[in-house]
Design brief:
Helix content: under 10%
Distance between the termini: 36 Å
Strand content: over 45%
Structural class: mainly beta
Strand order of the largest sheet: 1-11-10-9-8
Largest sheet: 5 strands, antiparallel
Length: about 725
């Protein structure tokens, strides 16, 4: 059992993309809370569990507060919630059967169920509370947790003749415990000492088919066998019948309100009438809805992207763009991670590229689009010189240093296309490539060559030799696993990245390889990729050879961030031989081990991490190096007595040497920057925290030329 100090993350404390105010090594979540699942009333707060998050709304001060792994929760993906009002304890269960208790400012994590090996389905369906005990209805029995002692005290396996049923819900009255199971309703004397014996449970003769919910309504016990089309709630003297697009509210056996689907909600997933007679609705698209006098009042929702389904993330001119490949609100954009803009003028967007003031978008179903000011323009045969059609799958977009737009078309013979800065269009045909495959990536190397990955076929490299309109000197090559043809570890390539030395890093379903001489691809000499050998347990092996490497990005220190499917996020040294970090959902706030895309804000060092459960970010300790150093930035400054985190020194040249002294010139700390950022832990050479005073920062580049000076004030 693990105890964690509980603290709140107020949504107003989010940090700007352009700012320098995010502490180094600090995690943030940037989730969509649109898909609301469950509602829980806790005193003056309304808790709302969403697809992969949790927030609560304080009805007195009108604040929205987010709870997550960063603030102390143990997991992601809530399956059920309830509240013990007598002992002021919130019980939360997750889809993986992990359990949290929130009590007295602490989060107590109970992992017994999650850790137990169970054959078959393992799921917590519902939570009921009675006399300080939480009754967890699970797919494998009824689990009892003593909420005061924070421990499991019993398990009831229920089913006729030992053929145990999955339990969907539980209801306890003055004399009996009723359970709704996959095989009907069972009940037993709640004071019996043999409830652990399945023979103590009697099957209800009138309810022999699956029952999903049991509540008290209209003065009698109601058994719901129409779930999920109909859900039942008994809340503060109101009985609710909840459908996907309607709610019937009863009081004293009388129908007092009937809400039928409208623009406010699309699919109702939960509803509750609070102690102030306010109706709250959890909707699959519009989050938490508030109804006063059963009339729509407002939407309660934390700011965030439109969806947690993310196809691609990109930072362009200080804006973060997220494309969702959705039919509505397919693009989310933000400048400060607080206010978000959604664009739904098109659908199924999978990639974007900004050139000047124009933004280009590629769709998986409707071709290429351009946003020019307030206008959205769709490209057709007519305005692309017969190069593009409106139903093309534009899978990747990028641009070169001349301002030409390059893109790929999946499932087409026109694999690669270009729109030049002066509006000349063309495509480039590579007959060795099949015309029924996805093109997963597109990058341009330091020599102007275009690299793309093709599903199950490896890579292609195309060289137009700087003459886009003259194809007579063009060259292309298909790169495979064969020696002399690339020597890839696998032809299933997912990731491409061009590092600061011009090397091409490739991620496959069998690890990583590197092309150290991309300029040699068309030279006739050996250009094959090399796999990096690392030592593990005393043996040499290829780097990440058992991992599916899905995305790679290079930070300002030329280090490699590598996202995998199933194993989380790695940070490797510049040459890939040293593992600096390995973040997983078990050892960090990372919400999923399936990392789908990465993007770095090189001005702040923040790395944005797209997972199959939504978006996160981590403040990295490397930024892009500056060529002209006018001043350095220190954060935080001053360093106050209650701050014990890392102190970042930014605005340096690449690989600077940094010395920190006291005002008398005594050396306190020395290091080298990662790209343009150095980090100090606030301690001296003896690993003791420095005292109150002013400390001087001296930096010089690796040649000793560019110099800068700064000051740090410590206050105790």
């Amino acid at each position: 059992m693990k105890k964690t100090i509980f603290y709140l993350l107020f949504i107003c404390l989010s940090y700007a993309l352009k700012g320098q105010n995010t502490p180094v090594y600090y995690w943030q979540e940037h989730l969509s809370h649109s898909n609301a699942k469950y509602i829980l009333e806790v005193e003056n707060n309304m808790y709302c569990a969403t697809e992969n998050g949790l927030f609560f709304y304080n009805k007195e001060d009108y604040t929205i507060n987010i709870l997550n792994k960063i603030t102390g929760l143990s997991d992601v993906g809530i399956s059920a919630m309830n509240y013990d009002s007598k002992n002021n304890i919130i019980i939360i269960s997750y889809h993986n059967t992990n359990v949290d208790l929130i009590k007295e400012g602490e989060i107590i994590n109970i992992t017994d169920i999650k850790d137990k090996l169970i054959i078959g389905e393992k799921k917590i369906n519902n939570i009921d509370v009675e006399d300080g005990v939480a009754y967890l209805s699970t797919s494998f029995g009824l689990i009892l947790i003593d909420l005061l002692n924070e421990e499991i005290i019993d398990t009831y396996k229920i089913g006729a003749n030992g053929s145990f049923e999955g339990i969907n819900d539980c209801y306890i009255d003055d004399t009996c415990i009723f359970v709704g199971t996959t095989g009907g309703v069972y009940y037993a004397d709640k004071n019996s000492n043999t409830l652990f014996d399945f023979n103590s449970w009697i099957k209800h003769p009138s309810h022999s088919s699956e029952v999903s919910e049991i509540i008290l309504g209209f003065g009698e016990i109601l058994f719901n066998n129409q779930y999920p089309n109909i859900r039942m709630r008994n809340s503060n003297g109101h009985y609710l019948e909840v459908g996907n697009d309607f709610i019937n509210v009863y009081q004293d056996d009388n129908l007092i309100s009937e809400l039928i689907g409208g623009s406010q909600f699309s699919k109702i997933q939960d509803a509750w009438v609070d102690k102030n007679n306010i109706l709250w609705i959890a909707d699959s698209s519009n989050s938490l809805l508030k109804y006063e006098n059963f009339e729509f009042a407002e939407i309660i929702k934390p700011n965030g992207p439109a969806s947690n389904t993310i196809e691609n993330i990109k930072i362009q001119d200080g804006f973060l763009f997220i494309v969702h490949n959705n039919t509505s609100n397919t693009v989310s954009r933000t400048e400060d991670l607080i206010d978000w803009t959604y664009w739904d003028q098109f659908n199924d967007i999978v990639c974007s590229e900004k050139i000047g003031k124009k933004i280009y978008f590629g769709s998986s179903t409707s071709g290429l689009w351009k946003k020019d000011g307030g206008s959205f323009i769709r490209y057709t045969n007519g305005n692309t010189q017969n190069i593009l059609d409106t139903n093309y799958y534009i899978s990747n977009l990028t641009s070169d240093k001349e301002g030409n737009l390059w893109g790929t078309i999946s499932n087409s013979g026109k694999v690669l296309f270009v729109r030049t800065y002066d509006n000349y269009w063309d495509y480039f045909f590579m007959p060795q490539l099949p015309n029924d495959r996805d093109i997963r990536n597109l990058i341009i190397d330091n020599h102007g060559q275009k690299w793309g990955s093709v599903r199950a076929k490896g890579l292609f490299v195309y060289n137009d030799n700087g003459t886009i309109e003259d194809k007579s000197d063009d060259q292309y090559k298909v790169i495979t696993t064969s020696l002399g043809s690339g020597n890839l570890p696998s032809q299933e390539v997912y990731a491409l990245a061009n590092d600061l030395d011009g090397n091409i890093w490739v991620g496959t379903n069998e690890g990583v390889c590197v092309f150290y001489s991309p300029s040699s691809v068309f030279s006739g000499y050996n250009f094959d990729a090399q796999q990096i050998i690392v030592e593990e347990n005393g043996f040499g092996q290829y780097l990440l050879n058992s991992e599916i490497v899905y995305t790679i990005v290079i930070d300002g220190g030329n280090r490699k961030w590598i996202g995998t499917l199933g194993s989380g996020l790695y940070l490797l040294s510049e040459d890939g031989t040293e593992e600096i970090y390995h973040f997983t959902s078990k050892n960090s706030p990372l919400i999923s081990d399936n990392v789908l895309d990465l993007e770095i804000n090189n001005s702040t060092g923040e790395i944005f991490i797209s997972t199959d459960k939504g978006l996160m970010s981590f403040r990295n300790d490397a930024t892009a190096g500056n060529t002209n150093i006018n001043s350095i930035k220190v954060f935080p400054n001053p360093v106050r007595e209650n701050y014990y985190g890392a102190i970042s020194i930014e605005g340096l040249s690449f690989g600077s040497n940094v010395k920190i002294t006291d005002v008398n010139g005594n050396l306190v700390f020395e290091t080298n920057s990662n790209g343009g950022t150095a980090v100090w832990n606030g301690k001296d050479a003896n690993n003791k925290r420095v005292g109150t005073g002013v400390y001087l920062v001296f930096s010089s580049d690796k040649y000793g030329d560019e110099k800068a000076v700064g000051k740090i004030l410590f206050i105790h």
